[in-house]
Structure prediction request, 1039 residues.
Amino acid sequence: MKNARALGLLAAIAILLLWPAFGASDATVNILADAGLYVVLALGLNVVVGFAGLLDLGYAAFFAIGAYTYAMLASPQFGLHLPFWLLLFVAAGLAGLCGLLLGAPTLRLHGDYLAIVTLGFGEIVPQVFQNLTKWTGGPNGIGGLDFPTFFGHSFGQRALPYYYVTLLVIAITILAVSNLRASRLGRAWAAIREDELAARHMGIDTTRAKLAAFAIGASFSGVAGVVFAAKLSLVSPDLFQFQVSVLIVSMLVLGGMGNVYGVVAGSLLLSLVNSVVLPQANGIANALHIHVDFGQYHFFLYGAILIGIMLFRPEGLFPDRRRKAELHHAAVADP
Amino acid sequence: MQLHSVLRAAAIACAVLATAGCGGGTAPSGTTVKIGVDLPLSGADASVGQSTLNGVILAVEQANAKGLPGGLKLEVYQLDDAVQGVHNPGQGVANVRTFVSDPNVLAMVGPYNSNVAKAEIPITNEAGLAQIGPSVVADGLTIGPDATQLRRTNPTANTFFRVCTINSRQGSAAAAFAKQFGWNTAYMVDDNETYGLDLTSVFSTDYQKLGGKILGSDHLAPNAQDFKALLLKIAAAKPAVLYYGGVTSTGGGLLRKQMFDTGIGAMPFMGGDGIPDLNTVAGKDADGAYYTIAAPNAEKLPSAQAFVKAYVARFHAPVGAYSANAYVATQVAIDAIAAAATANKGAIPDRASVVKGVAATDLQSAIGRVRFDAAGDIRNPVISLYGFKNGQPSFIKQISI
Amino acid sequence: MHAFLDQLVNGLALGGIYALIALGYTMVYGIVELINFAHGDVYTLGSFFALAILTALGVSGEVHGVALGIDIAVAVVGAALLCGIVGVLIERLAYRRLRNAPRLAPLITAIGVSFVLENAMQLWRGPAPVSFPSLLPNPSFVFGPLTLTLKQILVVGLAIALMAALQSFVKTTALGKAMRATAQDRDAAQLMGIDIDLTIAITFLIGSALAGAAGFVSGVYYQSTWFFGGFGAGLKAFTAAVLGGIGNIAGAMVGGFVIGIVEAFSTWLIGGQWANVAVFAILIIVLVFKPAGLFGRAVVEKV
Prediction:
């Protein structure tokens, strides 16, 4: 049986790598590359929210930091043209540092206070980028970013090379995150999530663990930001607003917080709903001979989806076993 | 094992999308010509996006009724670039890639927002797809080093054109009008968006060149409804005119209204073509406000009147701020397609010939004469000044820049 | 001095509206520990309802005399009542099932409800700001360097009055006691015979009614309303509630005024585009040094 599983796995990986060669259009590859970036973002946020249980509603800020790092260091803006591959690490470090900066003063806050502070941070960062026009291009943003190169070959504008880079980043992220979860740090996070006071009394350094969660989660977002900026060849503040943070949180909740593969599934699903189903809803409706103009109802549909999922399956599509136990334990404990 | 199942699912998704996405070569076939339209059709920009789209639809329907060479039929292929209610450059790019991947799309109209255009132009430039913007006014899209950078894949072949006039021309005209009215000091406010910032920046330069004095400038906070703190600040500075760079919905309307609450209602308020609908928010308080628009006096132009009549009859709604521009932009595309089809003996033409046709446009349209310069901008635009009387726009005078 | 006082008064009026919204936020949070993201949109809904009522009454500008009193009463009561009902419905349909779910679930639901409400209002009156009748004349009163307009006085006065009314309601009435008990320990309250479902429903009723009233006030003050206005205002109002100490009614009001003043002053001194940054920066600073907010009591955790 193990052989059959391994074979299936290999087949799946092969399809993911090779399908673009079979005449897939640039538009389709582009959609999946974009969806892939959201997978990375969701996995990163999963470390903060899913593993460590810290409510972060401003995750898009780190995404912005990563993206603007690339925009300022690999474009005509300052005349700096650092290589893409180097900047992946630079952005990871920078975003991680910002995660620490955000985490440090918020350690004493619990639950919803933390949520509001992170939300505030998420509002401040893009606004700062928008206001510091001299450095960041203001609301216009910075365009014409450098194309990444791979052994002398420029990526250009086709979505394909970015798709492969995204797959690579996803693979590394999944490996890193899974290992983290099984590590001592991961278990510390689980302990903190369930009962922080008890964890502290058991000798876990909760401060370090929480800071690590913020920093690590943020660094993944920074990496995703670099790939995003390089692919779009543009950054502008309105790409990193609260709606993006909400979207990523929703992906986590939909997929099943804590569960790495659930998160992947949830993010793929919501991403495709948002960028394929909703914009093309009119086309789909026409094909099914339903004459409703869906264009006006995007928000409504999206909100309804969120509400529906939360009402009927709040633990998500692929719930983490521990989380499910927590949920049911809480229900049972209620007299 | 969940990794396995998720990977499987993803792989299947890829396979399905691959088969959906492939098929069709790169040459157009059949007799349907699609005109791609990329606009924000949901969320905060929805009403302008929709009315702009209507302009396109009207032009296409009229052309189909008249008939095209070779029996070609036109089809509007619209995609929404708003994600969660906000125009999104990433979605715009995805939409443009969809247009590019469809060989029967020979031209596109859009986008609405300048930063979306910034992301899209490199794609249409590489693909050689004619792109005509109805409302994107940021200078940097066609002028300067930014513009060159956007076209780096194909520097010699420009595919981007726009029928709206660029900010620097509008800002210049506004400065000239302000000086003509004898307003020698101004305070500038903008909505901290691309369009607004460009406008005030140009206004500032040209106004000072003409001898005017800028007493100060400020940006609005996003999504704000209360501007009284700012207006109190401006009242203290006592400028002769308040120049506003931005559109009605990002604060122009409320700003004008609240001028009366803070005691400076008598101060003239001037803006660009972002506030022609100021009266919908400010009502009678719009009186005393002025705006420039890059079109000749619509009431004196028969084609403009005909357009308005046809629009209202078709959509049972008043004309939107950029409906006329979109209508004309589509006409430009259609004429180029028709000319290319004729040259191709009635068969469906290719994109390159459509681009050439657009570049060679010379059209008398509902917004005046349309000809493009080498960068893709309109040549010799006429700028008109409108004011509000009894809550309705009324034409005052025009300038040729 | 003149400018300083003007901005101060302006900030207080702006803050008064935030205070009104924050009252509802803090009440609901105190009892169900839920950040009701939809609360800001209920506030906007209140202004839409009030507009519809006033339009039905044929009001389009200023009104005087007895008619003014009637119009105000009908509009306020109508808006508050309708919003209260909406609030109860939202709680019943969207939040009740998730009372024991992990914290994020009702939060996401609240965001979903917020989106639904926003879209509904966008479809109702369109995406652009909508005109609201002025209703009251707005004379100014000058006291030396200080200038006050009638509407500013009313906004601030109303915020204080409603806060006091709410405070006394919660402290003296049986229902208020039930609410406090539920907030303190839900299980114990239930064991003491308090109907939790009813108490929570009434909390939402009152909180949303307050938001509705705030919507009416905001409409009259700005003479305009906008489907998306609730998002920013709600966010700042929640910031105000947190600043004051979540669950603390007087704190929410003070927090509202503080936020309003911060916003006005930062617009005046550094520019409107930094106003939001200043507000959130203040929030972060206060919470770093006083995590429970200005008036919140640090919760002693019993081990």
In short: The CA atoms of residues 194 and 243 of chain A lie 29 Å apart. The domain at 26-333 of chain A is CATH 1.10.3470 (ABC transporter involved in vitamin B12 uptake, BtuC). Chain A touches chain B through 66 residues (CB under 8 Å). Chain A has a mean pLDDT of 86.
